[in-house]
């Protein structure tokens, strides 16, 4: 039986390069750390973006003009490709993974919520890593999460996780644009702190992902308010997750 469970969210900008292609070594480094945690009896629920990008790699340029329908098609094609990538990498470490595609209704009180809990807890008890992503093929308009930051926060609260780690392509929250020498990394934030003055367009991650720094902080603060310490850190750096688990400073921590 595991002694701790954490939720890790990895965004599109972490796993892709400037050409919007999936960088497999990044996924391998991610899984390597999850495997190391597994050996320490720490189970991970992985919330992973990437299905739309993966679908574009397979299909190429789509002729569909409607943006929502196009995203549905890319996601439907890309999701099995992402799972195949993860399956093969986890298999290399002697581990098993499973696909979970929730929609917003699965977090509403009632049968759907309990089914989600039973599914995730059942997988963890069997030593299987759940890999969750919004079901973009069917989730549109009102049924959509704002982004996978929201999904990760909701899952962390659903299973009462010990930690939530949100991996992005910068080191955390800065006082200004991360590229400016005058900007400083903000190491600690509390759930009630007003961070509007730090949330600017220059602090928003670019690329195919829907969630910028403002979104990450909003949902990090929501999880932290439920006594789930949450970290926003650079997923492109090696050993980021292990450093966080071992208590070494990395990124921005949001906690009570």
Your description of this structure?
Helix 2 crosses helix 4 (about 65-90), helix 3 packs across helix 4 (about 65-90) and helix 6 packs parallel to helix 7 (about 215-225). Helices cover about 40% and strands about 15% of the residues. It has one domain (about 5-255): Carbamate kinase, CATH 3.40.1160. Strands 3-4-2-1-5-7-8-6 form an eight-stranded mixed sheet, with helices on both faces. The chain is α/β, with parallel strands linked by helices and about 260 residues long.
List the helices and strands and how they pair.
Layout: E1 4-10, H1 12-15, H2 24-39, E2 42-48, H3 51-59, H4 67-92, E3 96-100, H5 111-125, E4 128-132, H6 148-158, E5 163-168, E6 188-189, H7 213-225, E7 230-234, H8 240-245, E8 252-254
Parallel strand pairs: 1-2, 1-5, 2-4, 3-4, 5-7, 6-8
Antiparallel strand pairs: 7-8
N-to-C terminal Cα separation, in Å?
28 Å
Q: Largest sheet, if any?
A: 8 strands, mixed
H/E topology pattern: EHHEHHEHEHEEHEHE
Q: Tell me, what is the CATH class? A: Alpha Beta
Flag low-confidence runs: 201-208
The order of strands across the largest sheet is 3-4-2-1-5-7-8-6
What's the β-strand tally? Answer: 8
Helix content percent band: 25-40%
Radius of gyration: 17 Å
CATH architectural grouping:
3-Layer(aba) Sandwich
- Number of structurally distinct domains: 1
CATH superfamily: Acetylglutamate kinase-like
State the secondary-structure class.
Answer: alpha/beta
The fraction of residues in strands falls at: 15-25%
The residue-averaged pLDDT reads: 91
**CATH level 3 topology:** Carbamate kinase
Number of continuous helical runs: 8
Oligomer designation = single chain
Large-scale geometry: globular
């Amino acid at each position: 039986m595991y002694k701790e469970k954490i939720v890790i969210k990895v965004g599109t900008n972490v796993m892709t390069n400037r050409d919007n292609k999936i960088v497999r070594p990044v996924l391998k480094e991610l899984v390597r750390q999850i495997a190391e945690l597994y050996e320490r009896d720490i189970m991970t629920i992985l919330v992973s973006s990437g299905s739309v990008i993966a679908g574009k790699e397979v299909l190429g340029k789509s002729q569909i003009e409607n943006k929502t329908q196009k995203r549905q098609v890319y996601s439907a094609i890309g999701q099995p490709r992402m799972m195949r990538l993860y399956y093969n990498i986890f298999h290399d470490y002697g581990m098993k993974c499973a696909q979970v595609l929730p929609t917003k209704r699965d977090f509403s009180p009632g049968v759907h919520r309990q089914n989600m809990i039973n599914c995730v807890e059942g997988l963890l008890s069997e030593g299987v890593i759940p890999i969750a992503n919004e079901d973009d093929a069917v989730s549109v308009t009102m049924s959509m999460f704002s982004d996978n930051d929201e999904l990760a926060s909701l899952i962390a609260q659903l299973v009462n996780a010990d930690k939530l780690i949100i991996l992005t392509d910068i080191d955390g929250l800065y006082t200004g644009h991360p590229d400016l020498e005058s900007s400083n990394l903000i190491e600690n934030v509390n759930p009630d702190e007003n961070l509007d003055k730090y949330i600017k367009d220059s602090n928003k991650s670019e690329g195919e992902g829907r969630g910028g720094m403002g979104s990450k902080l909003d949902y990090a603060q929501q999880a932290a308010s439920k006594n789930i310490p949450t970290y926003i850190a650079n997923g492109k750096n090696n050993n980021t997750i292990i450093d966080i688990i071992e208590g070494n400073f990395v990124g921005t921590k949001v906690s009570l």
